Amino acid sequence: MSLWKRISSHADCEARMAAYYDEKGLFDLRLCLAAWIEDRIMSEQITPNSAEQLERVALKFNEDLQQKLLSTRTASDQALKYRVVELCTQIQRTSALELYTHLRGGLQKELQLATEKSVATPGPSMPLSPYNMNNPSGYMDPSEMMAVQPAVGAGLGVIHNALGTAKVELFEIEHQILQYFNEFSACGNSLKMLVQNYSYMLNSTGSPNPEEAFKCLMTEKAAIVTALCRSYICYEPLQELIISELNNWRRQQALAGNGAPFQESTLDQIQRCFELLESFIGHLLAAVKETLRVHLVNDEPELNNLLERVRGAQKNLVCAAFIVDKQPPQVMKTNTRFAASVRWLIGSQLGIHNNPPTIECIIMSENQANRFVTRGTQMDSTLAGQSSGEIQNCSSTMEYQQNNHIFSASFRNMQLKKIKRAEKKGTESVMDEKFALFFYATTTVNDYQIRVWTLSLPVVVIVHGNQEPQSWATITWDNAFADIVREPFAITDRVTWAQLSVALNTKFGSSTQRALTRDNLDFLFEKLQRDERSDYITWNQFCKEPLPDRNFTFWEWFFAIMKLTKDHLMGMWKASCIMGFINKAKAQDDLMRSATGIGTFLLRFSDSELGGVTIAYVNEYGSVTMLSPWTARDFQILNLADRIRDLHMLRWLHPSDTNGVPQERDRAFGEFYSARDGTNEPKAGYVRSTLHVQVRNAIGDNGSIIGTPQHPIPSPPQDSSMSMGNICETTNNSTKSNACKLPPHPKHKTKNTCSTQQPINCIYYDSNYV
């Protein structure tokens, strides 16, 4: 019997574990792949003993999990296939490390519950994982914390056992730091006594038994060295945990660049852990130095090695604590003001806040950042000369806020004036080139120099607005799929659809305030997929290669729709009035199957027109008619809801959700209609004009209703061969005309002809001309 079956046989245990897995939305995954997860994790024969090793194990598990889900997706059970797609989407919302450790922690909790219920399950033991998740708590000053006796449960005894048994919250790590610090502090009296005895031995001239006194000192010192080594062994994994947690926060910050939810305030609690660790390692370093002063033998390799390790740990901690907490805009336009800020998570530790350093900022190219990070380039006074551009207002002095212990520097008025670009190869463009802001400072603490630096998330520099769409493709891909700890700015060139679908859904949902449906995502996958045998999508498919039979890429098409929706269709999209991502064939099929019949319509995004939306409806003959697309320029003249109001053949809005029901048109769109009550009287001598949309019952060769040009023109079409003319209404109290019978506008010398390629079904009057 599997472990999960044993747990589920006890209702209280099952409910407890369901709540645990639901914290990360993993309960359905645990149920669907119960046996596989147990076998895969519990059969591991290694215990990750470093953050890097744990991350490698987690990434491998994530890859295996995705392959397992993809192989399940080929099942004949259609419901199961859809469920697997949802699971793929769900796991992509969680980082590989977070997902893996949460599942591991869950299995360990299940083993404990099984033991408590006397249903212990034989099998291989499970390596334990030193990882943690977040939970905010109140602030306490480190000096106060050190005096508090931690209330830690018995399960938090040894560090690897403690941090691997289950999800460990940050506040628990705080208590763990305190516990080990207090244990270390206990040897303080012993060290003080050792120093006193050593001083007495040096100053005494007539000791009755010097050899015995020397032996006693050696024994005392050996015991202290052992205690110091033990304290460092306890300290080291805690530091790795907190740095890993900070990297996880930075990863969430990158995802937030794509619009994902982000608990920014978690950084305050991470800082508290950094402050505690800095206090711990500072006291430990002082104790090691003090012990070395008790010079009893010529060579003390163990103590000297410990000194170097403690110094290295303190340096790594202080440097890791220097981060960009407020990122600059990731698509950065030259000569445009922007802001950013950096934060040093050591707070008031080390006393640096008493003489705060000045932070400098330059912009680095990808190659420069790579050389600096991977080759360990020394930071010196010539660093400013390595900038790839010229930034105004690029320095700021750090400030310490006593009330919240935040030690930061704000750059409120920076401006990139010039940029130096690398030589392009092949199909590379300036929108593919990544830069980063490089923040650095040098300060002195206790007569030794500290140099710290940090990089912002990648930025793409543009000089014109038309470069923005492709630039956002570069940034969106990097934010979604890059590792925080990497060589700048290494990124995979292919991802699974499950990964990409989450990124697209996050980006579109955050921009338009409504997520995509499963049908929407299936349609996007059809757009992107080139090889039916693979679920992988490449960078070139995403934003470089034109879509089949089109002269634009997938990203250009997707971005244009996202911008159109945000700028002109937001309310209707949020209200689920727009189906959006659905192909023409499925739209026709859905409408023909609709129970409401003639007059039923839906709104879909155009496949052929960038940033276009079209209406498909069941006409009076029971077939489906599709209007030519409208774009942003059309909606600047007359909004979509008012256009729908004017088309009286549209009666019932087809539901955008399979579980929805058709809605009467005015009920669905009424709140979005503009007022046409004539409250604003025209000036004397003028006749009021209004815009209206009308469609003639004529079908073009491609099955779409053909309209008039997008640009407003004052004269009606003259070519009788056109399938649809400009039908307009002018309202002047009792006067109403259904067709324009005006002479040509004096400003237009040439005859107006309709275009079958640029549709819009409305016209406006020039009030002066009327």
Mean pLDDT: 80
Structural class, judged by helices and strands? alpha+beta
- What is the CATH topology descriptor of the domain at 170-320? Glutathione S-transferase Yfyf (Class Pi), Chain A, domain 2
The radius of gyration is 34 Å
Low-pLDDT regions? 118-167, 698-770
Tell me the helix content: 40-55%
Pfam family, one: STAT_alpha
Domain SH2: 557-637
Subunit structure: Forms a homodimer or a heterodimer with a related family member.
Protein name: Signal transducer and activator of transcription
What is shown here, in short?
It is built from 24 helices and 23 strands. The chain is α+β, with helices and mostly antiparallel strands.
Task: Explain what you see.
The longest helix is centred in the N-terminal third of the chain and has 47 residues, at 210-256. The protein is elongated, with a radius of gyration of 34 Å. It has a 6-stranded mixed sheet with strand order 18-17-14-15-16-20. Strands 1, 3, 5, 7 and 8 form a 5-stranded antiparallel sheet that branches. A 4-stranded antiparallel sheet has the order 6-4-9-10. The relative contact order is 0.06. Strand 9 and strand 10 form a beta hairpin. The protein is of the alpha+beta class. The protein has 24 helices and 23 strands. Helix content is 43%, strand content 14%. Among the domains are: 3-119; 170-320, STAT transcription factor, all-alpha domain (Glutathione S-transferase Yfyf (Class Pi), Chain A, domain 2), CATH 1.20.1050.20; 327-421 and 428-481, Immunoglobulin-like (Sandwich); 569-672, SH2 domain (SHC Adaptor Protein, 2-Layer Sandwich). Belongs to the transcription factor STAT family. Residues 557-637 form the SH2 domain. One of its GO terms (biological process) is cell surface receptor signaling pathway. InterPro entries: p53-like_TF_DNA-bd_sf (IPR008967), SH2 (IPR000980), SH2_dom_sf (IPR036860), STAT (IPR001217), STAT_linker (IPR048988), STAT_N_sf (IPR036535), STAT_TF_alpha (IPR013800), STAT_TF_CC (IPR015988). GO terms for molecular function: DNA-binding transcription activator activity, RNA polymerase II-specific; RNA polymerase II transcription regulatory region sequence-specific DNA binding.
